[in-house]
Amino acid sequence: MRTLKQLLWILAAALFSLCAQANPQEIRIGYIAYHPNQGPVLSNLLPEPEDRGFSGAELGLQDNNTTGRFLHQHYTLVSALANTPEEVNPTVKKWLDDGLRLLITDLPQQELISLNKLARSYGAVLFNAGSYADELRTQECLVNTLHTLPSRAMLTDALGQWSNARRLQRWLLIKGSQPEDLAFADALKRSAKRFGLKIVAEKTWSFDTDLRRTAQRELPLFTQTDEYDLVVIADERGDFGEYVMYNTWYPRPVAGTQGLTPVAWHRVVEQWGAAQLQSRFEKDYHRWMNSKDYAAWAAVRSIGEAVTQTKSADTETLFRFINSDQFQLAAFKGRKLNYRSWSGQLRQPIPLVQPRSLVAQPPLEGFLHPVTDLDTLGFDKPESSCTVVYAAH
After folding, report:
1. How far apart are CA 349 and CA 264, in angstroms?
2. Strands, E, within 137-235: which ranges?
3. Is 21-150+266-351+374-383 CATH 3.40.50.2300?
4. Class level of CATH domain 153-262
5. What pTM, to 2 d.p., does this model score?
């Protein structure tokens, strides 16, 4: 028979378990987005969804809470879509004043830098799920900040690897005139040099013509130059890139922001369990999961994985664990992902896609690195002046 002491221990354990279930560990996450007005574009058949990013964060929250029910953890998400850049900081300040310390952002580069100055004064951690800017990973080094969205250099390096492997050595580069187009063009030129490719000509599209009517007449003449193997496009806004395919002087493939496109995520990624993630997203949000959704999902899941492994909701503890060699994220890309300790960038394969199929997923075989082949994509440690640190308030 059990002694009275044993019975008391069993009763105490049961009461402790009930208390733990009644008072789960609370983890609060904020999501803030600002989508600048891009103005009219030539092709707007597939507009960007207003809930991009936010829906990915919500799905990540569901995944965290599914596991959290068994671990006595509960995750909540507060979110806001700012109408102007001036609304971003005041909105987030209210959350910070209320004790929230984990933030996911879909913000342009300058708004993210501004928010970082505010958030660091509270000791908050930011996940950049909205800006591709290379400078944020190389020069404009933000404390307390991790990047789940790939940099432009990671995207163009994936394209450079594929082009090198397929022996498409000569590029015709066509770029738009918007700042984002110029930034993507710079990344393409860097990747071309890195992988031994030659840009035979570089042209800027500055026409105001309606290509829906005149593409067959104007683009062949515009693309007439020295012979090239691949046309690479830098047109992030979508002013002209969709009309370049099948209208070039030489019948050549098109890649970049249009054509064969490097992305963080796309519906055609279905291996490694991704089809299950895709179907859950489509069921809940009635559209395809895109790169911003995936970056926000990865940020929420990074938090969930860190809380599970450290058994802590302390901001500094979570940041240091996520940005360490011990962290691993299962993210439906065929391998466990982690963050670059110097820049806070999430290492990840980059799918190269066309609208209905996955063509390749660099890093490709044969591109070697002394640490991990994932670091053949984007800026490596010697190329970055950043050292990611956590700064308490």
Report:
1. 8
2. 145-147, 170-175, 198-204, 230-234
3. yes
4. alpha beta
5. 0.92
